[in-house]
Design brief:
The complex is a heterodimer of chains A (about 110) and B (about 110).
Chain A (H helix, E strand, L loop, with lengths): L2 E3 L4 E5 L4 E3 L2 E3 L5 E7 L5 E7 L5 E3 L5 E5 L4 E6 L8 E10 L3 E5 L3 E6 L1
Parallel strand pairs in A: 2-12
Antiparallel strand pairs in A: 1-4, 3-9, 5-6, 5-10, 7-8, 8-9, 10-11, 10-12
Chain B lengths: L3 E4 L2 E4 L5 E7 L5 E7 L5 E8 L2 E5 L6 E7 L2 E6 L8 E8 L6 E2 L3 E5 L1
Parallel strand pairs in B: 2-11
Antiparallel strand pairs in B: 1-3, 3-8, 4-5, 4-9, 5-6, 7-8, 9-10, 9-11
Classes of the chains: A mainly beta (about 110), B mainly beta (about 110).
Chain lengths: ~110, ~110
Amino acid sequence: AQSVTQPDIHITVSEGASLELRCNYSYGATPYLFWYVQSPGQGLQLLLKYFSGDTLVQGIKGFEAEFKRSQSSFNLRKPSVHWSDAAEYFCAVVLMDSSYKLIFGSGTRLLVRP
Amino acid sequence: DTAVSQTPKYLVTQMGNDKSIKCEQNLGHDTMYWYKQDSKKFLKIMFSYNNKELIINETVPNRFSPKSPDKAHLNLHINSLELGDSAVYFCASSRDTSPLHFGNGTRLTVT
């Protein structure tokens, strides 16, 4: 069955340190891939997306993600984390079967140490 | 200019009651969705409507009934509320294969 895995439930980094959040998917073809961020009490905001083309995609707030077909991964990175980045991060894929269905991973909570 | 707006933001009610959550989008999108986020933050799709037609119905109890009066609105009515219905419900919209735009959620608490 198609699935999205975020192996890290939570990650703590120091402000200014680099960040990488992992995401793996299980899907027969290359899906559409997304990263969303959810701040406490808020909805989900799109950080970036990958449909095709360049496997390194740039997003908002200084985030980037790299699609690696051989590893079925779409990891999110940021070179220098800010305290305001503390939030829940969700990787998601769209299954292009008979409908356009967005499937989410279980999320990774990012904590930022001052 | 809120793109996807949901009302109410908070909803506290007793078991057995019937309640509705409303959603409106002003993005001109043709597809709208309802997602449920449980206490562990897991997000799961419930329904999707395209041009007022139901296209996704993910094994949701019959007590949940979505209604789309037009392309810009997708409401969720819940009958006979149960404790397990407590969650945050998110509305979203999209157009063709564009990314989903989400509302800020409705936190439903059933006591």
